[in-house]
Design a protein that fits this description.
With 240 residues, the protein is α/β, with parallel strands linked by helices. The chain has helices at 8-15, 32-39, 53-66, 98-107, 127-136, 172-178, 182-185, 188-209, 215-236, and strands at residues 21-26, 43-50, 72-76, 90-96, 118-123, 139-149, 152-161. The protein has a seven-stranded mixed β-sheet with strand order 3-2-1-4-5-7-6, sandwiched between helices. Helix 2 links the parallel strand 1 and strand 2 (43-50).
């Protein structure tokens, strides 16, 4: 991967960045995504944010090498603190856990109040944590994708400001866990992901049932049985 050829998951993120956007890429690493977008004249301005010094220095070096310092501002800081109010209209956060992404959004939500119109989020795990945050904070999912790359499965969530409750009216539990768009499409990556998750849960459930009885183990078993049932319903039911 480089500034001319992104990974499949980052290409998916890139296609949802609006034309002529001013966007912030949080956790930008080598600033590949910002450089890629600017070199294609697709955006006006980018903030590449990094909290760790090593990746921050890598991003600074990359942007200078590409001669893009006038278009990309590389900043060191935690999450959305690298953004000034009304500075960007789109935020991308990719390659982190869903719980961490939700925490970044929560801690920096005052930066999202005014000018930010779109969030493009690519969690490696726990996309449900992001969906829950979006639902609670008046952001509506407008699209989702799930894809496989190098043996790993990734989800991309795209949200804009709005009331997302109608997306979850039919079955909130399923929609939060599987994704309201993804569980309708049920592509090969989706089926593979949840088949694998089901097998993992079944293995844990078997171990729990052979463990000493306790209230905690009983609760965990019930929760796993519930999730396994949901997977079966979503994958086999054509109406989902």
């Amino acid at each position: 991967m480089n500034t001319d050829k992104l990974s499949k998951r980052l290409e998916t993120v890139a296609k949802y960045i609006p034309k002529n956007a001013k966007f912030a890429d949080i956790g930008s690493d080598h600033a590949y995504l910002p450089c890629y977008m600017v070199k294609r004249n697709n955006v006006r301005f980018v903030i590449a944010g990094e909290v760790v010094d090593g990746p921050y220095q890598s991003a600074v070096k990359q942007v200078k090498q590409e001669g893009l310092s006038s278009n990309i501002s590389v900043r060191k800081g935690n999450g959305l603190e690298v953004i000034e109010p009304n500075e960007v209209d789109c935020v991308t956060i990719a390659g982190m856990g869903g719980t961490l992404i939700a925490t970044i959004l929560e801690n920096g939500k005052n930066k999202l109040k005014d000018s930010v119109q779109r969030l493009i989020l690519q969690p490696n795990v726990s996309a449900s944590s992001i969906r829950e945050w979006l639902l609670k904070n008046d952001w509506i999912l407008i699209d989702e994708e799930i894809l496989e790359e190098d043996g790993k499965i990734y989800e991309v969530l795209v949200a804009e400001k709005g009331d997302s409750r109608p997306l979850y009216e039919l079955n909130k539990e399923k929609a939060l866990l599987f994704g309201p768009f993804l569980m309708k499409e049920k592509n090969a990556a989706f089926v593979k992901k949840w088949t694998h998750e089901k097998k993992n849960w079944q293995r844990i459930l078997t171990n729990l049932k052979s463990a000493p009885e306790s209230e905690e183990n009983t609760q965990k078993s019930k929760e796993l049985e519930r999730k396994i049932k949901l997977v079966d319903e979503v994958i086999t039911n054509e109406d989902n």
